[in-house]
Write a structure and sequence with these properties.
The structure holds two protein chains of two kinds. Chain A is α+β, with helices and mostly antiparallel strands. Chain A has a single domain, classed as Cytochrome-c3 Hydrogenase, chain B (Orthogonal Bundle). In chain A, 43% of the residues lie in helices and 16% in strands. Chain A contains 14 helices and 13 strands. In chain A, the strands form five sheets. Chain A has a four-stranded antiparallel beta sheet, with helices on one face. A three-stranded antiparallel beta sheet of chain A has the order 11-12-13, sandwiched between helices. Chain A has a two-stranded antiparallel sheet with strand order 5-6. In chain A, helix 8 packs antiparallel against helix 12 (307-327). Chain A starts with a strand and ends in a 20-residue tail after the last helix. Chain B is of the alpha/beta class. Helices cover 40% and strands 10% of the residues of chain B. In chain B, helix 11 packs antiparallel against helix 12 (251-259). Chain B is globular. The termini of chain B are far apart. Classes of the chains: A alpha+beta, B alpha/beta. Chains A and B meet through helix 1, helix 4, helix 5 and helix 6 of A and helix 1, helix 2, helix 5, helix 9 and helix 14 of B.
């Protein structure tokens, strides 16, 4: 809904579509400048941090997976990383390979979902992927095939695509047979081709000329594009341990806000594909870097609308990486009950499809959780998304009402916000000017 | 049949309440069938998938999530009024989900543990299933649901027949696929004997005891299983926790956990008493 003159108007959309979870946006324009902007979340609170108190550390991966059905592996593996940090467990290389493979599956399915079903329809002025499929059936079929390959990895390694069952603190309940992992090769080879075709397809879209002044934050890992572990770093020189990052990233509970807003040193920042590409893009395999060059991307991409191109590049990377991991797979020893109990604090960080995910737990001498903190990508990105909305409206005042509203929605979808993920929720009344 | 000729397609609406989105994602996870589904039904409301919205009434409504706010109490009544068939998808909608753990603690305890200003919240003290508020035509179980069961329910409704979905326990699925019984071997506290089938006995097939994500099977005697597991060396705290997850408020699981003395041993009370001490 948009009303008012071009210089004085209110843009609002209740129930922003094609995002995970329930949110709304509202922008107020006075005298040609944006006076108010907010992305509101009216997803009801579920209190995950409270539900975890008193539970055994071994329960955290399965409980926190239920925060988000789109990226359950991110929650499971981040919880494992935090608990293993608290308990002083170092998992074997074989476990790491299998975890990274599982995570690649989640990146592929989540990114394919976003690129094809949630984001691309905006650029082609379609209400949804069904309308897009009527015009370009083979394109949507390619997207669904890519998504299926991601899910196939999750099913093969994790047992099922939504809330996999095979992950546990210390490793896996069961090691997949080498033949089952090897059988992923053919679909992944096809998926890599499809992903590169995806890059070419989305690179041809028309992108509004918007440049964000982003402070990028992502994990960095020696010699690798970070997924399942790494050290938090930023485009302005931050390079800290996960523990220090947890101290620096502060979540605020503000009155007219919807989720807790995270700030780093008091300032907003952006995590996710654009941040990973800016900080670790030079570590992408040559075939992906070549695709990036052909897509016209430089070393950094600061146009949020082009995030769809970076997401497509990351699908290609995840397919390439999964092929590498499949080739070196050797079954890890299944993890037994650890029988370790020691009091301590553990911090885990990984790169969820939408950005950096932080878990921190304190456990007592019986292995029970006494404190839990979960900082999902969406609450870290929320302030930056609002800044994007401001930029987009200021640069789009010439648009008619419906187009401006659509572009605002698109600006939100650029960052693939997972509102179900933003573990801290408030119920908000949306005011209309 | 081309798209243009199917003007009389039944309408399908997908509604989200308190949940993780995973069950509605299962619809999109039917990748090879998805476009065929969208030719068989008209997607009239599905926020995760489309900007478009068609006013009701709807032939089929799929409802994900539990009821946790006053607004949602009103909204589910409206969804019911607009829907010919109302089908709930997943454990949240069928039993209240994991967020129903708040039902076991003092009102206000959980919000105070997560938020600096709990007074900003407008949430109910309980998480309740959809069936506590409106008549439900069919409940599909699971955390998450099985996407092929979802496909079966959609096909059945379109054909005006009853869905063919098992109500027996996971045990029969283990027998059917030849998985060695974990409960008998004593390796793990398997909830398979009292948990509804639908996952094809996924966890036991990888050597992990069933953790009950499909909720109680029909006529399950959960307390009896708990007694048997206790006599085989599993402690009551672990057993109570195993019942207090994604279907904690399902009566059969809730009552058996209470019989184990769950109020003394599980999350809410521990958490609340810890807060009182501080």
């Amino acid at each position: 809904m948009t009303h008012g003159t071009n210089r004085n108007r209110t843009v609002s959309a209740e129930g922003v579509a094609r995002v995970e979870g329930e949110g709304s946006l509202r922008v107020v324009v006075h005298d040609g400048t944006v006076s108010e902007v907010s992305l509101d979340i009216f997803e009801p609170p579920r209190y995950f941090e409270a539900m975890l108190i008193g539970r055994h550390y071994s329960e955290a991966p399965d409980i926190t997976a239920r925060i988000c059905g789109i990226c359950p592996v991110a929650y499971q593996l981040t919880a494992c990383a935090a608990m293993e940090d608290a308990l002083g467990i170092v998992v074997s290389d074989r476990v790491q390979v299998l975890r990274r493979l599982l995570y690649c599956g989640e990146w592929i399915q989540s990114h394919a979902l976003h690129v094809y079903l949630l984001h691309a329809p905006d650029f082609l002025k379609c209400q949804d992927a069904v309308e897009l499929a009527e015009r370009q059936p083979s394109v949507i079929e390619r997207g669904l095939a890519l998504k299926r390959t991601g899910n196939l990895i999750m099913e093969t390694v994790g047992g099922r695509a939504v809330h996999p069952v095979n992950v546990r603190v210390g490793g896996f309940y069961s090691a997949p047979e080498p033949e089952a992992i090897a059988a992923l090769t053919a679909p992944l080879e096809r998926a890599l081709d499809d992903a590169l075709a995806t890059v070419q397809w989305v690179a041809g879209f028309d992108f509004p000329a918007v440049t964000g002044a982003y402070r990028f934050v992502a994990l960095r890992q020696d010699g690798r594009y970070a997924i399942d572990s790494g050290r938090p770093g930023s485009s302005d020189g931050l390079d800290v341990t996960p523990q220090r990052f947890a101290e620096l990233s502060v979540e605020e509970h503000v009155a007219r806000s919807t989720a807790l807003h995270a700030r780093l040193d008091g300032r907003s920042y952006l995590t996710g594909p654009l941040a990973r590409y800016a900080l670790s893009g030079s570590l992408l395999p040559e075939v992906v870097r070549d695709a990036a060059r052909k897509a016209g991307l430089g070393e950094t991409c600061a146009n949020p609308f082009q995030s769809i191109v970076v997401r497509a590049l990351e699908i290609a990377f995840a397919c390439h990486e999964a092929l590498r991991l499949v080739a070196q797979y050797e079954p890890p020893v299944p993890a037994a009950d650890l029988g370790i109990t020691r009091a301590g604090v553990g911090t885990g960080v990984t790169e969820a499809p939408r950005g950096l995910l932080l878990h921190q737990y304190e456990i007592d001498g019986d292995g029970n959780i006494v404190r839990a903190r979960i900082t999902p990508p969406t609450s870290q990105n929320q302030l930056t998304i609002e800044e994007d909305l401001r930029r987009v409206v200021e640069g789009g005042l010439e648009l008619d009402d419906d187009d401006l509203q659509w572009r605002c929605e698109q600006a939100v979808r650029n960052h693939d916000p997972c509102i179900s993920c933003a573990a801290h929720f408030l119920d908000v009344v949306v005011e209309h000017a | 049949m081309s798209v243009d000729t199917v003007v009389e397609r039944p309408t399908l609406a997908v509604w989200k309440f308190a949940s993780c989105d995973g069950c509605q994602l299962s619809l999109l996870d039917l990748e090879p069938e998805l476009l065929a589904i969208t030719r068989a039904v008209r997607i009239a409301h599905f926020t995760e998938m489309t900007r478009a919205h068609v006013e009701g009434p709807y032939d089929i409504s799929l409802v994900e999530g539990s009821i946790t706010t006053d607004d949602d109490v009103a909204r589910i009544l409206e969804v019911r009024a607009q829907s010919r068939y109302l089908v709930t998808i997943g454990a949240c909608a069928a039993t209240g989900g994991i967020q129903a753990l708040r039902n076991f603690v003092e009102p206000g305890a959980f919000p105070a543990m997560v938020y600096a200003h709990p007074d900003y919240l407008r949430a109910l003290d309980t998480s309740t299933p959809v069936s506590a508020h409106v008549a439900v035509d069919y409940e599909l179980r699971g955390c998450p649901i099985d996407r092929f069961q979802l496909l079966e329910v959609l096909l059945a409704l379109l054909a005006h027949r009853r869905p063919i979905v098992a109500t027996h326990s996971v045990c029969q699925e283990c027998k059917a696929r030849g998985t060695v019984c974990l409960a008998v071997s004593g390796e793990s506290a398997c909830l398979g004997p009292v948990t509804r089938a639908g996952c094809n006995a996924l966890c036991p097939s990888i050597g992990r005891g069933c953790f009950g994500c499909f909720g109680p099977s029909e006529g399950a005697n959960v307390t009896s299983l708990m007694q048997w597991l206790r006599s085989h060396g599993h402690d009551e705290v672990t057993l109570a926790r195993s019942l207090q997850t994604f279907n904690a408020a399902a009566p059969a699981f809730r009552d058996a956990a209470t019989n184990l003395g769950a109020t003394k041993v599980t999350i809410g009370t521990t958490a609340h008493s810890r807060k009182d001490e501080s």
